[in-house]
């Protein structure tokens, strides 16, 4: 029960992050950043509690990756919209968004084949890196006089892109193997 509530908290935090961020001023941006960090922490604790209390559920396995994708994608779009992510760095945000759509489509396709696509440890690290880079980028709005914060966030965003591409390739290989096996079974 609590793990699923934590996952839902991550989803419901998104409008509050955006609302706070679009209010001008240090305190509003600080509030957006704190809410984002708390939402990111729920990503760790929902899985931790589900495993510790043996409350893993189909609903949790369904909602957790969706919550991550919604949180990361929405905030990347917001940061792009206000120009914190701009220029060539929009490619990084686009790659991350494209990967999320591709993997979601793969999960849906594989579900039709009755094949569960497990979340890998690498994908969890990728999500953590995305969240860390976004936290830096949110902080850069509070401290525009400290350009190294934004530069750090952009650097980490590109590290997240490398991890994103790597995990996408792994998932696509997994899908290809299962599709090939399915085609061989049909013959």
Written description of the protein model:
It is a single chain. With 187 residues, the chain is an all-alpha fold. 84% of the residues lie in helices and 0% in strands. The protein has helices at 2-22, 26-52, 58-81, 90-112, 121-142, 147-186. The mean pLDDT is 91.
Furnish the topology, listing elements before pairings:
Elements: H1 2-22, H2 26-52, H3 58-81, H4 90-112, H5 121-142, H6 147-186
* Largest sheet descriptor: none
User: Helix share of residues?
Assistant: over 70%
Radius of gyration: 18 Å
**Count of β-strands:** 0
Which spans have pLDDT < 50 for at least 5 consecutive residues?
none
Please state the average pLDDT score: 91
Q: Could you tell me how far the N terminus lies from the C terminus, measured between alpha carbons in angstroms? A: 44 Å
Number of helices: 6
The SS-based structural class is: mainly alpha
Strand content: under 5%
Shape: globular
- What string gives the helices and strands in order? HHHHHH
Short description:
The protein is mainly alpha-helical.
Short key terms for the protein model shown above:
single chain, 187 residues, mainly alpha
